[in-house]
Amino acid sequence: MLTIHHLGISQSDRIIWLCEELGIDYVLQKYDRDPATGAAPAVYKALTPFGTAPVIAHDALVLGESGAIIEYIIHRLGGGRLALPPSDAAYPDYLFWLHFANSSLMSALMVEMIIPAIEPANPDIAEALRGRGNRAFALVEQRLSEAPYFAGDEFTAADIIMAFPLTTMRLFVPREIAAYPKLKAYLAKIAGRPAFKRALAVGDPGLKPVID
User: Fold this and answer.
1) Which CATH number fits the domain that encloses residue 76?
2) Which of 21, 46, 91, 126 could potentially form a cystine with 195 if both were Cys, beta carbons 3.0 to 4.6 Å apart?
3) 66 and 107 share one domain
């Protein structure tokens, strides 16, 4: 049996959504953030050596890291669905966005969280750091002007992993997206997927999708 250790309003939303899209049965173990600090509780941090969300348990295996979990579930439990094979012409695009989500976009947004602390003394550094996020969102807009989904014509796991930094992460790092009309249309389309709605209702009931 697959258990998803779900930290509220976190990247583990992706894993619930993935399982809903694939129709994979799972047990959801929910954890609340510390009300004072917003951090994960100690019991959650103890699940894996690095101590961050998401985390799954499958039989005797305990696994962290969004990308690793997505790949594991798709190939061990999902029959390869929502991934593209190397023979597919869109495979390079699939790989790029699957890894861009956390390697570049999420890291840029995490850095933006500390910009207010360094900006008064280091405005040039702050501006350079902010520029990484701006370039990332510009690249997203460009891609969505070329194709309906990140890997091309079909919805894949690349869309699932990209959604969190483009939506829920903006609760932590506010960003206006009026200047990105293709992104706004894409997020509205994603939020309309039945599996997305089910995942939100299960993982974070009452949370309004951040799509505007």
Assistant:
1) 3.40.30.10
2) 21
3) no
